[in-house]
Each structure stands twice: as C-alpha cells, then as structure tokens.
Automatic annotation (TrEMBL), chain A:
Residues 4-238 form the ABC transporter domain. This is Peptide/nickel transport system ATP-binding protein. It comes from Nonomuraea soli. Transmembrane segments: none annotated. InterPro entries: AAA+_ATPase, ABC_transp_ATP-bind, ABC_transporter-like_ATP-bd, ABC_transporter-like_CS, Oligopep_ABC_C, P-loop_NTPase.
From TrEMBL, chain B:
Transmembrane segments: none annotated. PROSITE patterns: ABC_TRANSPORTER_1, ABC_TRANSPORTER_2. The keyword Cell membrane applies. This is Peptide/nickel transport system ATP-binding protein. It is a peripheral membrane protein. GO terms for biological process: peptide transport. SMART domains: AAA. PANTHER family: DIPEPTIDE TRANSPORT ATP-BINDING PROTEIN DPPD, OLIGOPEPTIDE TRANSPORT ATP-BINDING PROTEIN APPD. GO terms for molecular function: ATP binding; ATP hydrolysis activity. Keywords: ATP-binding, Cell membrane, Membrane, Nucleotide-binding, Transport.
From TrEMBL, chain C:
Residues 66-253 form the ABC transmembrane type-1 domain. This is Peptide/nickel transport system permease protein. Its main location: membrane. The chain crosses the membrane at residues 66-90, 97-120, 126-144, 179-201, 232-256. The keyword NAD does not apply. It is a multi-pass membrane protein. PANTHER family: D,D-DIPEPTIDE TRANSPORT SYSTEM PERMEASE PROTEIN DDPC-RELATED (PTHR43386:SF1), OLIGOPEPTIDE TRANSPORT SYSTEM PERMEASE PROTEIN APPC (PTHR43386). The keyword Cell wall biogenesis/degradation does not apply. Keywords: Cell membrane, Membrane, Signal, Transmembrane, Transmembrane helix, Transport. Residues 1-19 form the signal peptide. Belongs to the binding-protein-dependent transport system permease family. Pfam families: BPD_transp_1. PROSITE patterns: ABC_TM1 (PS50928), PROKAR_LIPOPROTEIN (PS51257).
Length: 303, 319, 280
C-alpha cells in the first residue's frame, strides 16, 4: 500500500480545467517533484493533496483510505507554502505558530510546549530564542525554516512543499533544500515538492512528474527525465534552463493561439504535432522501467 | 575605458531613517561600453536595485545620493538641471522592471501609453506616434492589434515584451533592466532573453542587466559585476566566472545553483545572512559568512586587478 | 505625540464627568442662582435659563452623553466585526446573504430614519443608542469584511487550516489580531459619530428633555432663547465639550492610522519610477 495515491484527480474553476486526470502515488520517505510552469496546475494539485481545495473529480487516498477524518489527515499531511512572508501571521509570534499544531495534535502538553518549540527550532537550524519574535523580525530564509518547523511539529508522513525556495535568496535556497532532504532521511517523511525549477528537482533526486496544461505529461526518476526526456514539453523545459556550463542551445517555439480544450494541451507549441494530437489526449506510454510519458509521438519514434 | 557609454564612479546612496543612515550603495564604480551587456548580480538587499534607480536619478526620499558621479556620454547626470535630466531620461536611458504590471498604467490602453511616451519626447502627432507604437510591437513580437488591450489582458510574457518595447521606443543608448525575467517561468524567460539579445544586435543599445541569477548572466552578459553589502566585490568577463571566479562570495553563489547535469554532488550554499546596512561590520562585509576570513578582513580589502580585466575585493585572492 | 494629546484631553473630560458628585455635589438640576448669570467665581460657567449651574450640568450631563456615545461605539463595532468576519470567512451564500442585508441597510437614509424611529420610541438615551446602533453597523460590517477578505487570501490562513485549526479559531486567533488597528479606528469614528448624532437628536427635542446631557443642554439653551439673551456660555460650554471630545478621538485615530503595519501596504515603486521617466 502506498502512502499516498492520487487517482484521476481533476479540478475545474468555472470553465477552465486547472487539473485533469492526474494520477500518481508516493511511498513513505520518497521525494516526488511535481514540475511545471505557472498555470500548469501544479499548485492546484498541491492544494488538493493538502485538502485545501476539493477535487472536482477523482480522489486522494492516504494509506489506502479516501475517508480519513479531517484532524487525522492534518496530522499526517502537512504543507509548506511558497511565500514565507505570507504564510506566517504577522500579528502572532513564531512560538504561536509552532505551539498551535503541537497542542492541536497532542504532540505536547501546554507545559511541554516551550521545550518542544525550542527543539523544533533547533531541528531546522534556528536559535530557540526566536520563539518570542514576530515574523517581520526574521529574514526570508529564517521564516521558511519556521514554516518547515511548523509542518514538522505534527511529525507528518507527507509534506507538500509548494515552491518552498523560489522566493528565497539564491545563497540560502540550497540550505532549505538540504534541510528537507535531511528531514526525509532522519524521519522518513515523504515530500511532494512543487517547483518550476527542474534543476532543483533533479538535485533532490527521487521521482519527477512534469505537468503541462493541467495534465501530468511525463513521470520517472528525476535523473532519467533530466537526462533523457521523452516528452517534447520536458525537452523544451530543459532546453530553456540557463546552463552556462553547457552553453545556450535552444530555439524556443512560441505559443500560438489558446490552449485547446480537447486533445493534448501541448499541441500549440509542439514541433511533433499531428491531427491525432488535437483530438485525443495521448495515453500513458511506457518508456522504460518506471519512466512513462503521454505523447502520441512516442510509439513512432525509436524511443 | 575612455570611450565608456556609462561611467559610474564612487557612487554612494544612503537611506536616511530615524534609526540612522543605511548605506545601500557604497562607493561603487563601474563602466558600461557602448553596446555592451554588463550583468550586475547580487541577492536581495545588496543594493543592486537602489543602484539601478540611482543612475537615472529616480531615487526618492529617504534615499539620498551622497557621493560620486554618473557620467553618460561625458555628461554627469548628477549635475544636470531638471530640464536636461528630463531630456535624457527615456531617450538615452530607459528602464525595464521585474513586474511590468507595476510599470504599466493599469487603466490605460497599451497604445495610449506608447503614444504618450513617444509624443512627450519627440513631439510627433498622435497618428504618427501610434504608427511608431505598432512598429515597436512588431519589433518585440507582439501583434500590433494588442495596442488596444489593457495591461491586465496580456499574459506575463506579453506584458514584459510590452515593457521592453516601450523602453526601446526612443532608441536609447542604455537600457537598465532590473530582474526583467524573474517573475516568468523558464520557458518564457528564455524567449524574452533571446528577444533581448536579437534586439540588441539590431539596435546596438547597451544593457545594465540586474538579477540574482548568476547562471543566467553567464549566458547573456559580456561582463559581470557581483555586488554584496552595497559594494562591488568582483568584476570580470562573463566567461571567466565559470573557470576562475575568485571572491569567496562569488564562488559560494556559483555553488548554490544545482545544475541540470551535475552528478549528484552535494551543494552547500552560503551559511548565514547578508550584513546589516544600518550598522555594517568594519572591513569586508562578507567576512562573517566566509570560510577564509582572517584578522586581515577587519580592514576593507581593496578592489584590485587579479588577472587582466578581472578585479576582486578580497585579501585572500588579492595578494 | 498626537495620541498623547488626544488621550490627555479625553482623560481630563472623562475624569471630570466621573468626578461629577465631587465637583458639583448639588447635582445638575438644582436651581442655585438667577437665570442667565454670567460666569463668575461662584458659577465658573455661569447659569442657564432655569438658574442651574452650567458647570454642574456639564459634568453631570457629560456622563450621559459619553456613556451613550461609548455604548453606541462598542455596540456598532461588535455587530460590524461579527457580521463582517462571518461574511468574509465563510464566503459563498452566507456572504451573499449578509452583503445583501448590509447593502439594504446602507441605502436607507440614516438621519431621517433616526428621526422617525426616535420620534416613535419612548424618548431617552437608551432609545437613541439603539437607533444609532441599528442604523450604524452596516458601513463598519462592509469595512471589516473587505479587510478580512484580503487577509483571508493570505497563506497564513491556509496554513492555519492545514495545521488543523477550526474555523472559529482561525477567525478569532489568526484573522482578528490583524484587524485591531482597523477596528480601533472604526470604534473611534463611531464614538464621535454617536456623540454628535445623539446630541443633535437631543437638540432637536427627540431625547428625554428631563435628563441632563450635552444635547439636552443645547436643547434647553435654544428653548430658553439663550442666544437672544446673549448668554453664550449656555451653548458654547456643551458645544465645546462635544467638539473637544470629538477632536481628542480624532487625534487618537490619527495615531492609530500611523501605527497600522506599513508592511501591509502595496509597493508602487516601479510604477512611480516609470511615471517619472515618462513625464519627466
């Protein structure tokens, strides 16, 4: 039984399909990166997994059950948000942010809470004296560490991390990614890491899912996907990443016209597009062990 | 460089507040040659955006330029009277900001905003100005029909193209770009960068490109200056940065980017956080985060040439 | 500085009213001298048309006026906060229903309704307070709702939900602390409004003329033709008291405004810089 099974998840906002037919699973202690550009549906997927948003179709199973009660779900699935300036309450102290989940989920009594808070802050590499401070007194990196500490207060099995480093300064991003990796190793916590940064997804290792136009279009081990991408969108994404060592190579296709409502979402930008792509969403095609993609061209190329 | 287009010398900017003055830019000097792309890299709070606003004298109280000169084609911008200043802004120096939505007026159609700029500075009639606006749109890859749109009707990438087009309206010699692609995803970023490169080759303007993304700079810039704690700590041709980055901060920055093809090596980033600008440490601002720091670092290291065209401010590499 | 001045003025006024039994032991109604005597050592603020001491009336009457204003302020603020928060947090149908009621109440012309209601209900400060609360909460509810709505979009609210907080707890412990400055400013404004509107109603004769308050003092001054008699002290005293109270609260309000977290304000640097570039 997987820790998390996402089955055929979909979400619409009015007419717009933000997420369609998203299926994937996560094992205990596994890091899965969900990579895509803004508007790809990756954050919507994250919010559905974190139960902040109800799916329109499909379901999310935690340890095989789709009906885990609210509080029990919260004690096993936590979330770290993108903006450390928005995810902490400006009117409350750091201590408040960490004490509340401890008390709510009975991880500590009121008496034990101060020590537990201090221990949490030390776990994420912060000085316990910060507990009495307010968020605006902390730097962005410190705040994001507080947000991670808050998620870990309940000793979760899964942490949904929605672009946790994209708003941080370059020199401290790696520190936060390393912290996530360390917590995974020490506590066997799984991460669903949402990002637009393919390189950081590869850095964290694990598996990678590439999302485009609401569909997960490719999935597999991060090293394989970044090395031998099968889907034309993944190739485009990789070519666009600034890479001074390899030197610039790409000529980028420009989007032409709106995203189609049927068929593959990538048709408007795809160099391999055929008439079939415009009408039918490609099925999941196996590329290699644990590596799959949804593209009609896969059968025809020598992949 | 005697024939520099822009020569900034000894420029300092302070923010004067109740708790004392914060020196955001500290005796910064650099030059940009005609047609050159100078990359200015640094993290938030290093002073790079303040510097960008100081050059066309766009800073507002409590920020004050306390020393230095900014020479553009031989004239010191800091000495110009208001009328002369107005005449060179936009026509000789233009700017592109991170978030075009902030730079574009949300309640005016794109065409009117283009026409406004063109008419204010050239005295063209409205019809001629709109024609020129359509040319500019075509130039940056926007359908001229889009001139009838309001900024919010455009996608993020389109808005950034529009901001670029307006900046180029009067064929400036220098465009200051402050994180122009940071709000975009990589594919759009790549498109805009390719657009900028192509336009520069055609029109020959120079660019001061400000970003936190040093790997992007290594691809697009001719030379790169690294800013830390209000000072330029290293400056060299872009390609030197990969092989021979000298300053420990620069090396730390480069070691902060996971690459798309390295082999699982563990990166460390830089521990600690940038220095306070209000009460800066004596000597080298990076000493507190530096693994090479010694007693010498309590004195400010000079910005010296360590290789041809390669300068750095660090005691460890200067000797 | 402003807040200190405002607070000091308000404190002096409130203390004088609280200490009324000490400052004017005879009470407000005692006719202790002739009508319309000018201010003197015996009667600091002179006497009114009934021969009552104006100073005694002022300190005794202030109790009623200030109490009424404060209850209206607190009452409208409570209703406004409750309604505004519920509408903003729960959204959807609840929000639409509440907003409909709020908009209807807002379109009802306030002052005429107040006059009509006050005329039909038994006169007295309690009636006036009730009327002012009924007509006054809607604007505040809209204000609080708007503020709370923008806060609700912020991730710290989502984070509190992920932590497992229940809705009421999110409202009370996460939303509310961020609204204190708005609520305090609204409270100040409502107290000022209640004081002036309440006094105006009493001046129009819609209060209980038998009870002493700053408004009824004005009513009687008018009734006794004080203006024609040249007895300026009878109407200037309560008028000044009302103005001073309102002014001190406004000063307090300024201070609250300045203390509002500047981090919540949106930056406009790039737009301003572009405007400067564009127009020189």
């Amino acid at each position: 039984m997987s820790l998390l099974d996402v089955e055929n998840l979909g979400r619409t906002f009015g007419e717009a399909h933000a997420v369609r037919e998203a299926s994937f699973s996560l094992e205990r202690g596994e890091i899965v990166a969900l990579v895509g550009e803004s508007g790809s549906g990756k954050s919507t997927t994250a919010r559905m997994v974190a139960r902040l948003l109800a799916p329109t179709t499909g379901r999310v199973l935690l340890e095989g059950s789709a009906t885990v009660p609210e509080l029990a779900y919260r004690s096993k699935v936590q979330m770290v948000f993108q903006d450390p300036f928005g995810s902490l309450n400006p009117a409350r102290t750091i201590g408040h942010h960490l004490t509340r989940p401890l008390l709510l989920h009975r991880r500590a009594t009121r008496k034990q809470a101060p020590q537990a808070v201090a221990a949490l802050l030390e776990t994420v590499g912060l000085d316990p004296s910060l507990a009495v401070r307010h968020p605006h007194e902390l730097s962005g990196g410190q705040r994001q560490r507080v947000a991670i500490a808050r998620a870990f207060a309940v000793e979760p099995l899964l942490v949904v991390a929605d672009e946790p480093v994209s708003m941080l300064d370059v020199s401290i991003r790696i520190g936060v990614l390393n912290l996530m990796e360390r917590l995974r190793d020490e506590r066997e916590t799984a991460f669903l890491y949402i990002t637009h940064d393919v390189a950081s997804a590869r850095y964290l290792g694990g598996r990678m899912l590439v999302m485009y136009g609401g569909h997960i279009v490719e999935g597999g081990p991060a090293r394989v996907l970044t090395g031998e991408p099968a889907h034309p969108y993944t190739r485009l994404l990789l070519a666009a990443v600034p890479n001074p060592r390899r030197g610039s190579s790409s000529t980028v296709t420009r989007p032409t016209g709106p995203r189609p409502s049927t068929g593959c979402p990538f048709t408007a930008r795809c160099p391999l597009v055929t008439d079939l792509c415009r009408t039918t969403m490609p099925p999941v095609t196996r590329v290699a062990d644990g590596h799959w993609a949804r593209c009609h061209a896969l059968g025809k190329e020598n992949q | 460089m005697a024939d520099a287009l822009l020569a900034v010398e000894d420029l300092s900017v302070e923010y004067r507040g109740l708790r004392g003055a914060a020196r955001a830019v500290d005796r910064v000097s650099f030059e940009v040659a005609p047609g050159e792309v100078l990359g200015l890299a640094g993290e938030s709070g290093c002073g790079k955006s303040t510097l960008a606003l100081a050059i066309p004298r766009l800073l507002r109280a409590p920020a004050v330029i306390t020393s230095g000169s900014v020479r553009l084609g031989g004239r010191d911008i800091l000495e110009l009277d208001d009328r002369r200043l107005r005449s060179i802004r936009w026509s000789e120096i233009a700017m592109v900001f991170q978030n075009a939505m902030n730079a574009l007026n949300p309640v005016m159609r794109l065409g009117s905003q283009f026409a406004d700029v063109i008419r204010t500075h050239t005295g063209l009639g409205r019809a001629r100005a709109l024609e020129r606006a359509a040319e500019l749109c075509t130039l940056v890859g926007i359908d001229p029909a889009r001139l009838r749109s309001y900024p919010h009707e455009l996608s993020g990438g389109m808005r950034q193209r529009a901001a670029l087009a307006i900046a180029l309206a009067l064929e400036p010699k220098l465009v200051i770009m402050d994180e122009p692609t940071t709000a975009l995803d990589v594919v759009l970023q790549r498109e805009i960068m390719e657009e900028i490169t192509a336009l520069r080759e055609r029109l020959g303007f120079a660019v001061l490109f400000i970003t936190h993304d040093i790997s992007l700079l290594i691809e697009v810039a001719d030379r790169i200056a690294i800013m830390y704690g209000g000072r330029i700590v290293e400056q060299a041709p872009a390609r030197s940065f990969l092989e021979s980055a000298a300053h420990p901060y620069t090396r730390g920055l480069l070691a902060s980017f996971p690459s798309i093809d390295d082999d699982g090596e563990r990166l460390t980033g830089i521990p600690g956080s940038p220095p306070s600008l209000i009460d800066p440490p004596a000597g080298c601002g990076f000493a507190a985060r530096c693994t090479l720091a010694s007693d010498r670092c309590r004195e400010t290291p000079p910005f010296v040439e360590i290789a041809p065209a390669h300068r750095a401010a660090c005691w460890e590499v200067g000797a | 500085m402003k807040s200190a001045a405002g607070g000091a003025i308000l404190a002096v006024l409130a203390l004088a009213c609280l200490a009324a039994p000490l400052l004017a032991p005879d009470g407000p109604a005692a006719a202790t001298a002739g009508a319309f005597e000018a201010p003197s050592a015996a009667h600091w603020l002179g006497t009114n048309g009934q021969g009552q001491d104006v100073f005694a009336q002022l300190v005794w009457g202030g109790r009623g006026s200030l109490l009424m204003a404060l209850s209206v302020g607190v009452g409208t603020t409570l209703v406004a906060v409750l309604v505004g928060l519920l509408a903003a947090y729960f959204g959807g149908l609840a929000d639409e229903a509440i907003s409909l009621v709020v908009n209807i109440v807002l379109t009802v012309p306030g002052l005429p309704l107040i006059i009509v209601l006050a005329a039909f209900l038994p006169p007295g400060p309690a009636t006036i307070a009730m009327v002012l609360i009924i007509t006054g909460w809607a604007f505040g509810a809209r204000l609080i709702r708007a503020q709370a709505l923008s806060l609700r979009q912020r991730d710290f609210i989502a984070a509190a939900k992920v932590a497992g907080e229940r809705p009421l707890r999110v409202i009370a412990a996460e939303l509310l602390p961020n609204l204190w400055s708005v609520i305090a400013a609204y409270l100040c404004g409502q107290v000022v409004f209640a004081l002036t509107a309440g006094s105006a109603l009493e001046f129009l004769g819609l209060g209980d003329a038998g009870q002493t308050s700053w408004g009824t003092m004005l009513f009687w001054a008018q009734n006794d033709s004080a203006l024609l008699q040249g007895a300026w002290w009878t109407f200037v005293s309560p008028g000044l008291a009302i103005a001073l109270t309102a002014g001190s609260l406004a000063l307090l309000n300024f201070a609250l405004d300045a203390a509002t977290n500047p981090r919540l304000r949106a930056p406009g640097g790039a737009r301003r810089a572009t405007e400067v570039l564009r127009h020189g």
